[in-house]
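PT: before anyone asks, these are the final sequences, not the draft ones from last week. 950 residues across everything. Please model them as a single complex and drop the result in this thread when it's through.
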Amino acid sequence: MADETTPRWSTDQVLALAPDVASQRAGRGLATPTRWRETGTDPPGLWGRCAGSGPTPYQVVVELTGPAVHCTCPSRKTPCKHALALLLLWSGGQVAAGKPPGWAAEWLDQQAVRGDRAAARAAAAADRAGEQTGQTDDAAASKSRQRRMARVEAGLDELDRWLADQIRQGIAGATRAGYEHWDTMAARLVDAQAQALASAVRRLAAVAADPDRLLTELALLRLLVDGYRRIYQLPADLAATVRSRVGFPVPTAEVLAQPGVRDRWAVVGVQEQYEEWLTVRRVWLHGAGTGRSALSLSFAPAGQPLAADLLLGTVVDADLCFYPGALPLRAIVATQHSPAEPFREPPGTVDVATALDRYAAAVAAEPWLTRWPMLLAGVVPVADPAGRWHVRDHTGAGLPIDPVISAPWPLVAACGGAPVSLAAEWSPAGLRPLTAWAEGRLVRL
Amino acid sequence: MNRWPDLLATALVGTDRRLSPSTVEDPPGALLDLAAVWSVYRRAGVPPVRGLPTPAPAPADERPVVAEPAVTTLASLLDPDTDQIGLDQTTRAALLTEWLKVATARNLRAAPESLPALLEIGRRHPPLRPLVLAAGGARASWLAQQNPDWTYLTGGPSRPDASTWADGSPAQRVAYLAALRHVDPAAGRELLDQDWSTLDVEERVGLVGALATGLGSADEQFLERVLDDRRREVRLAAAELLATLPGSGYQTRMARRASASLRHGPDGTVVVRPPADVDPAMLRDGISRKPPSRIGERAWWLAQVLARTPLTVWTEGGSEFGTTPDGLLGRQVTDGWAAVVHQGLAEAASTQRDAGWAEALLTTLEPDLATRPGPVPRWVEALFWVLEPAQATRRALAVLREPSPGPRARLLEVLLAGCPPPWPAEVADAVLAGLETHAAHPRLPYQWSSVCRLAALRLPVDRAAAATALAERIRVKHPGQGRVAEIDRLARVLQLRHEMIEEIA
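LR: through. Structure below.
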């Protein structure tokens, strides 16, 4: 199973796999040939034995295409420091070619079989979040699609009745209801294979205490149900948005079939969050030429590292394929034409009024939009007389900071009272600063 | 016209309960449809906020910021949730201190976005505050003024809140008094005097102890009156303070008793005449009558007198024993009183923190210590804590260079703790060599892990490579032992410190 086209990785690529800084250090510390015996590589396999603090050395095997890692040490981190060290040795050219010994060959063979199963599992995990690999059998696919659409319609009918019930009985009661009040309806939507809607209903629990917000969210749900009922009368873009928000995933292949938008895309914000047993990385991009914003999402099961392909503060000449919708925002990086370069100031920063205008246009195109990226020019954080924090631009226009951040001290400190360029996420609750460019440095907030 | 409030009001109550009959076919659906339009309108129509003040700019700080990798390291040191090779709280605090010192020494400042976390650490750990200010610079002071939690940085010692005295718990009142004594000692003493009769025994003891801050001769009169208290614990608390007050009547009285007990004898000996009895004056001065078990009465009284006498009595002009501690210690003590005399003087040396006497006493006790079985008595160990760094270093080296860990090695932890960081080259080499020779020893008289932990923080960082090599050798020779893990940890922490310091530049 030799694969001569596996090029050797750079040190940075290896270190990017590490789950945290401590593992990087530990890995570097172990990457000395004296600690290792029986190392060898036969691409895509890589193996070695490392002397640890226990009596027997640890056996480490790596499969480079995944990468997949196997180590007999008790550490729960993936990849562990021994795997990182072996990869660093290999990257530095200190591992000779060879034939895998028994213990390594066995695991590598299992990996070939597991590879398919793992792909299926990852696809299932991504499916929950709205991605799906294409199906191969057309007839079976179309039948299952029809079944699914029937289920979804039934689920939406139920949701419609439930929404009407909430309004008939009055939402004053709902604001005090427990979690089951929402979860029951959400569970029914999961059964109806409308996962995205189920998540939306569960999120109502979080805003239930605020009647203003609750009414808004209920109304927008009703709008979505209405939209789905009349989907064939909607323009194609809006129809795609409705389908996606109800929970029909768009296969990655279909996204990549769209024409790519080529531009110098600047990575202006990166956020990692835990949502429903997944780690989600949101990467906000801004096109220097087109002035468009884009959002790249990547997922990993909680605890596993995410590929670090888009680095904050760099600009990359690439083709982005956008997911179809009324307001194209989510995108996949299809082709990268050149290596990423760092930039000093983000392109396309605007003042507060312009940013709000753009948000208004976005919401007009897609009413269910909540989070929208903003790139603000020359803003400074300041507290109003009541002690609530805002950012304010040179015209004196301000945006409130999301109250969930009680005081944006890192931003205040980084600005030092002087205006900076700021990348942030805007939502009805307020602004969440992501990245600032202050005094010639990039500050991740 | 804004329809939203109406819609919300109807929705809260519920369309079923609206009194007026609805003309619409599907009231809830119609309400939701309208609400959707108005929701989107409200979201899209958010206007910018006006009338915000302009913030005052921060003063400039000419120093450059530390290098980017150092910014990341500092962030992980400040965030207790980040895993760092299993660093515990103490180690993390020590590394943070070192980081701040090195950055300041190289005339660099911490990155501005690190300042909120730094200021929080300074709020919780007062000893770090000067370092936080130094590394944070003008930006830190500017930031601190905007958050009431951080005003500690820029305010000087301020008068503590007087309501604590009235309403606080006993512990809070002690802290209040100490803080007040810091700012205005006279006011503190007068406050205590005023309320003295209302306090119970425990409070009296605690609050008298707080007078140690800002102690001066103006306090003598009050403390002498406290010596008349009925309870011995209270008298002891006052006696402890008076004993440290130069020129006080207490010191004169004790000196007189002590001089009467130890006299210059013929043939260069010391004649001991311990007190025959404890008179009321001695009781008042905090001397207890009843000895603990296995000590005779007169020995007990002699030891107490010696322990409370200022050591200058034995060496100042007019003393019969000369001008150095050896003047007294060099002589033979009659009638087997030597042990008592030494213990009394040792307690005086440790309370008065007299490094010269501690050194002299330890030299005198050396032969005895070497042969005595069992652990080192506490009153001897206390002497090691007051040694000057040079003396502690010398003794530590002597212990480390012994071919195999002998009885004196029990004191290795104490001695090494007395050598302040960074350890000089010869101590570093001796510690590493000593750890290597002792690794094989099945039973050590000291705690291997304590010495390793101390060494991890105090060895100079240029020994990182040597420590790693040492850990490797020990692992190879003694695989699977607990000591291997400790020496491994030493090497890793030292390597971490080395990288941390390299990064800052």
